[in-house]
């Protein structure tokens, strides 16, 4: 396929879980889009979702979906170790790809995906849906409008009391997942944080990781399937200090399991030259508590901002479809933002393993000098 025609866009989805279903819903509700194929290995879910969305082309193996022909675009919503092979195969077949986060297990795999997009001249986008939340968008507007001046320091977190997705599953297998909460939750936190800062380059990281609860069988999500085979090979808590171009700094903290108040909590605190901001989201509330801190001539001028819920995955899919419909923009959307997020995560794991700060070289430097430990 050399271009997307005026006919309805024909799309497929690989992956039948929660994320895959978000993509299916968004495609099904989009104008001039036909969801024509789905793939996954859970036979009951494949049948039920096929009936729900009126999809007759149902495949057990993703290779059959990619090879079936006549697809314009595909969503990849499967375990992380499958992101690269499916994405590269789809791009090489001339199919545009929307891939779930993280882009891949590491930046090396991510680079193969970016190169495939560039080679094929097709769109590759990563589903960073949290930046499409209404509260994140409201905070971004506040920053862009200068309400807090220049942000120079931030602290961004995603913490859970008992939320290891599935003890013993692919999530806790290092080779399959690439890591624990840092790569699973932390990549969301990293993405919306750098987005809010205006996309500064990350110069260096200093990180620590801990695995205290998972290896003892503690901290599993109450509704998850436990002890399905793999040892707990990843961290259950991570913390990192990022040095940003222009003098800014950012602290990231993520956990799947830690002794703290129950539930999930994520958000960010920003400190700026003219004010500050704090966003806290408890247990996936559609709209979090957003406060802007400022002074005026009369003293304190703090305000609470009530944001719309936002549209998350729907907005991600819509933006992807817009880019696919605009061939002039294809070269701009080759997955590089996902690759750069992966390079930062890789540097964090390297820093934690070596107990040293890791300097991140520019992506166009020679490969052997991408990371360099500080002396």
Tell me what the structure shows.
- By secondary structure, this protein is α/β, with parallel strands linked by helices.
- About 30% of the residues lie in helices and about 25% in strands.
- A 10-stranded mixed sheet has the order 16-13-12-11-7-10-9-8-17-18. A 6-stranded parallel sheet has the order 3-2-1-4-5-6, with helices on both faces.
- The termini are far apart.
- The model has no long low-confidence stretch (mean pLDDT about 95).
**Terminal residue distance:** 51 Å
Give the total of domains: 2
The number of helices is 11
Structural class: alpha/beta
Helix content class: 25-40%
Q: Keyphrases for this structure?
A:
375 residues, alpha/beta, Rossmann fold, Dihydrodipicolinate Reductase, domain 2, 2 domains, ten-stranded mixed sheet, six-stranded parallel sheet, 11 helices
Overview in brief:
With 375 residues, this protein is α/β, with parallel strands linked by helices. It is built from eleven helices and 18 strands. Strands 16-13-12-11-7-10-9-8-17-18 form a ten-stranded mixed β-sheet.
């Amino acid at each position: 396929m050399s271009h997307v025609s005026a006919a309805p866009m024909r799309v497929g989805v690989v992956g039948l879980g929660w994320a895959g279903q978000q993509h299916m819903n968004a495609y099904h509700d989009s104008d001039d889009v036909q969801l024509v194929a789905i793939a996954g290995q859970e036979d009951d879910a494949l049948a039920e979702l096929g009936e729900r969305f009126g999809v007759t082309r149902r495949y057990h193996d993703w290779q059959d979906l990619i090879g079936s022909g006549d697809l314009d675009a595909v969503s990849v919503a499967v375990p992380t170790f499958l992101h690269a092979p499916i994405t590269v195969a789809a791009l090489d077949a001339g199919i545009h790809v929307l891939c779930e986060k993280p882009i891949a297990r590491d930046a090396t795999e991510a680079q193969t995906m970016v190169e495939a997009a560039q080679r094929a001249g097709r769109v590759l986008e990563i589903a960073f849906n949290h930046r499409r939340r209404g509260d994140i968008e409201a905070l971004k507007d506040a920053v862009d409008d200068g309400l807090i001046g220049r942000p120079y320091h931030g602290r961004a977190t995603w913490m859970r009391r008992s939320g290891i997705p599935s003890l013993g599953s692919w999530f806790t297998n290092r080779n399959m997942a690439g890591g624990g909460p840092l790569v699973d939750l932390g990549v969301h936190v990293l993405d919306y944080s750098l987005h809010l800062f205006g996309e500064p380059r990350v110069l260096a990281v200093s990180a620590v990781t801990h695995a205290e609860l998972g290896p003892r069988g503690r901290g599993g999500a109450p509704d998850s399937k436990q002890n399905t085979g793999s040892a707990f090979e990843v961290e259950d808590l991570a913390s990192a200090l990022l040095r940003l171009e222009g003098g800014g700094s950012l602290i990231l903290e993520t956990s799947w399991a830690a002794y703290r108040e129950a539930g999930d909590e994520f958000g960010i605190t920003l400190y700026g030259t003219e004010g500050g901001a704090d966003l806290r989201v408890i247990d996936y509330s559609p709209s979090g508590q957003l406060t802007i801190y400022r002074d005026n001539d009369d003293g304190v001028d703090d305000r609470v901002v009530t944001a719309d819920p936002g549209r998350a995955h729907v907005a991600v899919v819509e933006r992807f479809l817009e880019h696919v419909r605009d061939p002039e923009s294809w070269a701009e959307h080759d997955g590089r933002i996902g690759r750069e997020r992966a390079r930062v995560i890789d540097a964090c794991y390297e820093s934690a393993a070596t107990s040293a700060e890791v300097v991140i070289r520019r992506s166009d430097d020679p490969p052997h000098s991408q990371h360099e430990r500080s002396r």
